Amino acid sequence: MAHPHHLDAEMSPAARPVALVTGAARRIGRVIALELAHAGFDIALHHRGAAPRSLAEAASTAEELRAVGARVEVFAADFADPAATAALLPAIAEAFGRVDAVVNSASRFEYDSPATFDAALLESLVRSNTAAPVALARALAAQATAQPAHARVTPCVVNLLDQKLHNPNPDYFSYTLTKAALAHATVLLAQALAPAVRVCGVSPGITLVSGPMDEDEFAKAHKLTALGRSSTPEDIARAVRFLIESPAITGVDLPVDGGQHLVAQSRDVLFLARDAQSASN
């Protein structure tokens, strides 16, 4: 994929903007980090913890990013731990000398419904999906006041939300509540942190196989949109980069979902795809 460079990838390291991408070792976070690296950003690559798989994925993605000319530093933090969350952005600022963007891509996704609701699950998801992004946005605002303005990028937070906020259904009940809270936080933080920091959201549609979904179910679900195709990781990454590079935009939620939010869906697309598969058998 061609990457037009709005930022000069050959600029001196001191002049390159720095982006923290949470959950950047794999899946959508990895593709976002690569998009920004191609655009001339240095990358603070966050991953969850010290499990061998997580470490290996982080190391592999870091090598991919360095191969396109980015400076990369890897940071582990479990957002279930508020102290680890609070320490993350100051550590990045110390390593790079500045931070210009935060992409809150990391998220926990577990199934429940109103019938199976458990407050303990909601509380644990809130820490990762809502509280950590809010804390990182506040930390970026504090950092922005302590560093010189960048010539090309105004400080920006992009929160990954979910298209189902525009067309809700009760599946993944607690997860949806955390994303709804983050969507409102996006607007409130955009108001509270202006003019120092812009805060925006991107709402992906069904983008990758996740949870109990198999490849056939994903293929069917990916077509259950107004455009007959939902989002790809590259679609999401381009939208994130667009918002970071757009200094007049704040407080918005950009659905990138093939129009999935326009199609009434009474259940999560996983179950709709399963129903369609059963009907065709």
User: Which radius of gyration do the C-alpha atoms yield?
Assistant: 18 Å
- Provide mean pLDDT, rounded: 91
Give the class-level CATH name. Answer: Alpha Beta
Low-confidence stretches: 1-11
User: In this structure, how is the largest beta sheet organized?
Assistant: 7 strands, parallel
Q: What coarse outline follows from CA principal-axis ratios? A: globular
The beta-strand count equals 7
N-to-C span = 37 Å
> What is the share of helical residues?
40-55%
How many individual helices?
8
* Tally of discrete structural domains: 1
**CATH architecture classification name:** 3-Layer(aba) Sandwich
Q: Tell me the name of the CATH homologous superfamily.
A: NAD(P)-binding Rossmann-like Domain
CATH topology: Rossmann fold
As a percent range, the share of strand residues is 5-15%
The H-and-E topology, N to C, reads as EHEHEHEHEHEHHEH
Strand order in space, largest sheet: 3-2-1-4-5-6-7
Structural class: alpha/beta
Task: Please give a quick description of this structure.
The chain has 281 residues and is α/β, with parallel strands linked by helices. The protein has helices at residues 27-38, 52-67, 82-96, 119-144, 173-193, 215-221, 233-244, 269-280; strands at 18-21, 42-47, 72-76, 101-104, 156-160, 198-204, 253-256.
Describe this structure in words.
It is globular and about 60 Å long. A seven-stranded parallel sheet has the order 3-2-1-4-5-6-7, with helices on both faces. It contains eight helices and seven strands. The protein has one domain (about 15-210, about 230-260): Rossmann fold. The longest helix is centred in the middle third of the chain and has 26 residues, at about 120-145. With about 280 residues, it is an alpha/beta fold.
